[in-house]
Amino acid sequence: MAEISFPLPDLGEGLIEATVLEWLVSPGDQVERNQPLVELETSKSALELPSPQAGKVIRIHGAPGETINVGEPLVVFEVPDNTAGIVGTVPKDDAPKRRVRLSAVLDED
Amino acid sequence: MSESTTATLEAAARNEQSVKLSMQQALNRALDEVLAADPKTVVFGEDCGQLGGVFRITDGLQAKHGETRVFDTPLAESGILGMSVGLAMAGFHPIPEVQFDGFAYPAINQIVCQIARMNYRSRGKLPMPITLRVPSFGGIRAPEHHGESLEALFAHVPGLKVVSPSDPHDAYHLLKYAATRPDPVIFMEPKSRYWQKGDVDTADGGTLTGARIVRPGRHLTLVAWGAMVARCLQVAELAAEDGIDVEVLDLRWLKPIDAEALATSVGKTRRAVVVHEAPLTSGLGAEVAQLITQNCFDTLKAPVERVTGFDVPYPSGDLEDEYIPNIDRILLGIQRVLEYRRG
Question: How far is CA A106 from the centre of its chain?
Fold first, then answer.
């Protein structure tokens, strides 16, 4: 298994920090990509932060009320080694399936 | 000491160097070793530093080698490759990454007009020892510009070398080899093969130039590179069930192409099918077919067949399996060659 840290991303508009309002996941939870992880408040607005990936949450950083700087760890995921890519899926190495049969007569001249 | 004992001892010594790695791990290790061996090497690209790359290829390298040698860049491929030109001029050995194949288009000016010809333009005073890593080809259900095959485009540019490994062993050694070349190398990583493990003999890379026979056969040569090599090996196994003995040739270097290896293989099998993911028209398969025809015209049993992607923009993930040459399409290509009779 591999660990992937998800730091607080740049939330735009020059914001450098955010305050945790409420965690929507707990350590041990299996989350899907785009599933809301945490409700944050910035000096501009409150927002739900979606998960950048699927995986198991193993650590969360920041109790409600605590402020986290952009770039600091927010969530640590655990993912299987072979699905550690962030974009796309890992192709399955299935047993090859065929419909076509070769029916050639070879002339071995 | 008898000859066989020596051979056994050498094999044992080699085995100690043989490890099972995924291509992702093999590439990571190769970069780590290149960074350690050559203080002039710098590795950079979008998410290459702190995150360790979207495919984890640069995982842990910034922590180990520092932020001045492994770093993140803005989302601007023209800047990534433009900076590579300047770094190379200043004596560095850049290993930039464009995160996905289709992201190379914004940097075509820097690649074609600067990197490829600076050595020529400066009469050899400004070589460009740049290894441009490009996660390439399709198969991972990713969005647009994440599944394209640009080898023909790169191969058409004088001054560039182009290589694509098909397994972890070759990935490890070819990347280390490319990184120590004095010329720019486009290093196309088959992203659908990043996670499958294979034996890597770290001590002995074997021959790193030219093509490689990955499965010997008598009746027909399948020519492929990158992710299509694994699929062609599957096809060869299935063809064997029907009594057809297929040789699989991993081209590896797409510029320059190993014309001699093609001639040797097809000279023996007398039939050839070339397989690639890129669209058919003006794809590298045409170049391969011509080189085979040029050298094997008198002995060929049939025209060289091409089994390729279609002449359409690379489709969305749902249609990927229809686009990328599948086992049946490759088998049908083989069948057409086997059935061919001179009129």
Answer: 53
The Cα–Cα gap between A25 and A60 comes to: 9
A96 and chain B: CB distance < 8 Å anywhere? yes
Q: Does A100 lie at the interface with B, CB-CB under 8 angstroms?
A: yes
Distance from C-alpha of A51 to C-alpha of A9, rounded to nearest angstrom: 11
Name the β-bridge partners of A6. A75
Choose the catalytic residue: B65, B146, B169, B219: B146
Burial classification of residue A12, based on how many CB atoms lie within 10 Å of its CB (0-12 exposed, 13-18 middle, 19 or more buried): exposed
For residue B167, give how far its alpha carbon lies from the nearest alpha carbon of chain A (Å): 14
Q: What are phi and psi of B241, to 5 degrees?
A: -60, -30
Please check whether residue B191 touches A, CB under 8 A.
Answer: yes
Work out the minimum CA distance from A27 to partner chain B, whole angstroms: 21
Which of B22, B54, B334 lies nearest to residue A87, judging by beta carbons?
A: B54
Which residues make Cβ contacts (< 8 Å) with residue B242, sequence separation at least 6?
A: A101, A102, A103
What b/e readout covers B287-299, taking b as 16+ CB neighbours within 10 angstroms?
bbbebbeebbeee
Query: Which residues does chain A have with pLDDT short of 70?
Result: 81-85, 93, 107-109
Q: Over the stretch B149-188, which tens digit does the pLDDT of each residue have?
A: 999 999 999 999 999 999 999 999 999 999 999 999 999 9
Q: How far apart are CA A84 and CA B195, in angstroms?
A: 9
Cα dihedral B313, B318, B321, B322 in deg (nearest 10): -60
Give the distance from residue A98's alpha carbon to the nearest chain B alpha carbon, in angstroms: 6
B145 catalytic, yes or no? no
pLDDT given for residue B1 in this prediction: 43
How many angstroms separate the CA atoms of B250 and B253, rounded? 9
* Residue-range domain boundaries for chain A: 2-83
A2-83 topology per CATH? OB fold (Dihydrolipoamide Acetyltransferase, E2P) (2.40.50)
Domain annotation for chain B: domains and CATH numbers: 18-201 (3.40.50.970), 212-339 (3.40.50.920)
Contact between chains at A104 and B339 (C-beta distance less than 8 A): yes
Closest CA to B169 of B246, B250, B224: B250
